[in-house]
Amino acid sequence: MRQFLEHLEKARDQSPHTISAYGRDLDAFTDFLTRRAAGGEWSFEAVDRLALRGFLGEMERRGLARRSAARTLSAIRSFYKWLHVHHDVDIPAIRAAKMPRLEKRLPGYLLQEQVTALFAHAEELAESGELDDLRDLAMLELFYSSGLRLSELRGLDLPRLDLLSDQVKVVGKGRKERIIPLGGRASAALRRYLQVRESVAKLPGADRTAVFVGRRGKRLAPSTIQRRMHRFYDAIGADGMVTHSMRHTFATHLLDGGADLRAVQELLGHASLSTTQIYTHTSVERLKQVYNDSFPKGRKDRS
């Protein structure tokens, strides 16, 4: 398993998040096989259809969501493909295992009036001139104007930020790079923040390359970014939103404004256009709601 995870990192250039998730999934799988053997010996070669079904059934009883179950099965199948190539282990039952049918979920996003309220609140806080408040406004502007993933924003380094050309170079999934333009408001917020950031960049042990840091100069943890974003959502009563919702909002508002789907795909860093197309469904649902609410003859309850 260690060799397989190293293969994902070095040969497949998978993201640390994917490698960590696959590692947890395979740990759970081997733990199940160990318990199933009741203290006896077992091997990956001996895994059969019943063992795989037993493991997936246990995950379902534990309340594992279908999406998580699909990722777990994907990890196991990828591991066995690697075993087949490097160790001549071929288990037909695993090759034939079907992925669970996933429910289609439309991504949550903010309405224009919510975005206006969100930034009004963030700008009011930033008037304090404090590092945290200026940084949070800059993060918010960058999330909304560029559609970055949390991992991309957190991992952003100063050399990749070009405020002269108003653009940022991002390293996304699969270590793929893309260049994204910055909005004028985002560039202005970043300039204000970076001036204050200099005061903590000189502290002992500070991360001098990270764009977004805390009061000790250390790169922000993902949980810190999530917590700060949730404070913004709570302040305007945007229930059910998560950090990733800003990325959904970015894409939805672009498409609502008439942006080309291929262009949105490039900006988001999606490998497949089908991934981007979910945002067209979001826009259609919004338009249906506007139609039903605004057009008298479109209402279902009309007399």
Spatial order of the strands forming the largest sheet:
1-2-3
Radius of gyration: 23 Å
Number of domains: 2
Count helical runs: 14
Shape-level CATH architecture of the largest domain:
Orthogonal Bundle
DSSP summary, beta strand count: 3
Strand count, sense and barrel status of the largest sheet are: 3 strands, antiparallel
Describe what you observe in this structure.
There is one protein chain. With 303 residues, the protein is mostly helical. It has two domains: 2-95, DNA polymerase, domain 1 (Orthogonal Bundle); 112-292, Intergrase catalytic core (hpI Integrase, Chain A, Orthogonal Bundle), CATH 1.10.443. 59% of the residues lie in helices and 4% in strands. Strand 1 (161-162) and strand 2 (167-171) form a beta hairpin.
